[in-house]
Design brief:
Elements: H1 12-21, E1 32-36, E2 50-57, E3 62-66, E4 73-77, E5 81-85, H2 87-97, E6 103-107, E7 112-115, E8 124-128, E9 133-140, E10 157-162, E11 167-171, E12 175-179, H3 199-206, E13 210-211, H4 212-220, H5 225-228, E14 233-235, E15 242-247, E16 250-255, E17 258-261, E18 266-270, E19 274-280, E20 283-289, E21 295-301, H6 307-328, E22 331-334, E23 338-342, E24 347-351, E25 368-372, E26 376-377, E27 387-393, E28 400-408, E29 412-417, E30 423-424, E31 427-428, E32 437-442
Parallel strand pairs: 26-31
Antiparallel strand pairs: 1-2, 1-5, 2-3, 3-4, 6-9, 6-12, 7-8, 9-10, 10-11, 13-21, 14-15, 15-16, 17-18, 18-19, 19-20, 20-21, 22-23, 22-32, 23-24, 24-25, 25-27, 27-28, 28-29, 29-32, 30-31
Length: 446
């Protein structure tokens, strides 16, 4: 469908009639000058041209402007002219605008958002149709959106203008920029879908969606940093046109042309075997087709806190637990099991542990390693133990881990060996049937 601009010539009697009726707010004397933002076909006037402005109508939402090198006057929408005031100011603005005066763009994705500010989290002002043409006004600052790989997308935030007058910011990654100076600008045909607001879809785009294992970590307050740092997620790909499922069980990409509603809080990805349904405001079921043709469903959750913040909080928690151990020592001595010296950087040195070799500590170890607070004492131990600590002997290959339940008291440190079979997903679920307990006195000279 051709995007033909309205450009109506006004005989003087028509203008006078409009003035008498009160529709227009000014007389036919010049109000000033402005620059055309979107080129006209009839008469042919290029974007960036300085035009004299005679009338502004807030009621009709239009300007009456003069056609260059003629005595004709035409009307154009308010949004398609930037009023500058004096001719000198308009000419300066036209010079600044020249870089983008002939630049337009085509949307490569249905539903590509135009936002109220150059930020991927900003409120959506408009959703572009696939193939819709917009006018580029200028380049803007702002941080680029993050792509499915976790890296910033290539491109720039641009100030744009739609054919119906919506102005906002759009990231260029899914835009095809082109130059247009004369003739008709072809706008996208209005087919298949409308551009009605979809608050539920906007909510999906505004949130991060994580797998159930992350939700379980939040519920239990037991965080596996290695798993969190893999950043499993569902990314609808609103800025890339590529949806991604990154999950412990699979990793898949789905290229699509648009996202369309197909029922109550349910949408399909046009061009891909992918659907999603909001089960609640915090639970999103994603349905996809395996290569074998079997349909699968994975549920993702909107967590109450961002993954990066969860990682930081867990790192701080572990650091504080270690500091409590360190500050209680940092040297702990046992008559039977040697001396443990903790270092501020999390490393340890253990000497005189002969009675623990080779059952617990490898013969080849020199007693050097690092402390990790990456294990959790089950709820059954909460009233008897301060927590759990993992001694990792890094001077042997492969590294040897020795996990203890521990209690701090005013005199020192009591630790109890945890057998491997008592650990389930980094959680201590039970004690040994014949527990081995070691007590170390703090070295009061330090």
């Amino acid at each position: 469908m051709e995007n033909k601009k309205k450009s109506t010539h006004y005989p003087l009697f028509t203008i006078h009639l409009l003035l008498l009726c009160g529709s227009l707010l000014s007389s036919c004397s010049k109000l000033g000058y402005g620059i055309l933002l979107w080129s006209l076909e009839e008469p042919s006037i290029s974007s960036g041209t300085v035009l004299p402005v005679y009338i502004r109508s807030n009621i009709e939402q239009l300007y009456v402007v003069g056609v260059p090198e003629t005595s004709d006057k035409i009307e154009i929408p308010l949004t398609q002219l930037e009023f500058c005031g004096s001719k000198r100011k308009a000419e300066k603005r036209a010079k600044d605008f020249a870089e983008y005066a002939s630049t337009y763009a085509e949307s490569l994705q249905d539903g590509l958002p135009i936002r109220e500010s150059p930020d991927n989290g900003a409120r959506r002002a408009y959703r572009l149709r696939l193939g819709e043409i917009i006018k580029i006004l200028e380049k803007a600052g702002g941080s680029p959106p993050i792509g499915a790989t976790g890296e910033p997308l290539p491109g720039d935030w641009l100030v744009v203008l739609t054919n119906d007058g919506t102005k906002g910011y759009c990231f260029s990654y899914r835009l095809k920029l082109f130059e247009h100076t004369e003739g008709t600008v072809i706008a996208a045909p209005v087919t298949r879908r409308d551009n009605e607001p979809d608050p539920d879809l906007d909510m999906i785009f505004s949130k991060s969606w994580s797998p159930e294992i992350y939700q379980q970590m939040v519920n239990s307050r037991r965080f596996n940093l290695d798993e969190l740092e893999k950043r499993y997620r569902f990314d609808p790909g609103i800025n890339t046109g590529v949806a991604r499922i990154i999950h412990p069980a699979l990793e898949r990409e789905f290229k699509y042309d648009g996202i369309y509603r197909e029922g109550d809080r349910s949408w399909f990805f046009d061009g891909a075997n992918l659907q999603m349904t909001l089960r609640s405001d915090t639970a999103l079921a994603v349905n996809y087709m395996e290569y074998s043709g079997v349909g699968r469903t994975v549920v993702f959750y909107s967590l109450p806190i961002e993954i990066d913040e969860l990682i930081n909080q867990e790192k701080n928690r572990r650091e504080n637990l270690f500091l409590a151990l360190y500050n209680q020592g940092p040297i702990f001595t046992s008559n039977n099991y040697g001396t443990i010296t903790l270092k501020q950087n999390g490393e340890f040195n253990w000497t005189g542990y002969d009675l623990l070799v080779p059952q617990f500590i490898p013969v080849e170890s020199a007693g050097n390693g690092r402390i990790s607070m990456d294990v959790f004492a089950g709820s059954a131990f909460a009233d008897r133990y301060t927590g759990a600590v993992n001694f990792i002997f890094t001077d042997v290959t492969p590294n040897r881990s020795l996990v203890f339940l521990y209690v701090l008291d005013s005199q020192g440190l009591r630790i109890e060996v945890v057998p491997d079979y008592a650990l389930e997903d980094d959680v201590i679920t039970r004690r040994s049937s014949n527990p081995m307990t070691l007590y170390f006195f703090r070295d009061s000279s330090h």
